[in-house]
Amino acid sequence: MPETGTTYTIVDDFLNSIVDTTRLTDEIEASAITGTLTRIDTMDGLCIVYFADVLSSADQIILDGEVSPPSAGSLIADHTGVVAVPPADATQLLEWSGTAAPAVSPAGTARIYFDSTSKKLRISEDGGAYVNLIA
Known about the structure:
Blueprint: E1 4-9, H1 10-13, H2 21-30, E2 37-43, E3 46-51, H3 57-64, H4 75-78, E4 98-99, E5 110-115, E6 121-125, E7 131-132
Parallel strand pairs: 4-5
Antiparallel strand pairs: 1-3, 2-3, 5-6, 6-7
């Protein structure tokens, strides 16, 4: 069977309107879902969760509940997307890989990325164009 994806609206379906794909991957893999997760993509305000095959109805309920939007108690509805950052010390850091500019942030949010061409951290705030975070 071909890979299949379920599409969610980040603003409507996720707590805090944030998706941390690494954390969501860990949450899905640690859950009772038996389907094989292949990837999670986010773009243009959407989150698409792909599995190697169609999920069983039991797996689908674990992932997003029985109603639309996803119901409380499901992985999607309960995913906060908030990454706990431990207190800074000399042994901890945040690191970004270079990439091309993603879409600007939606209104009321901000996005930061490391530009692979300019070698600068760039930020888009409240739907505005990207600017260098540090001059």
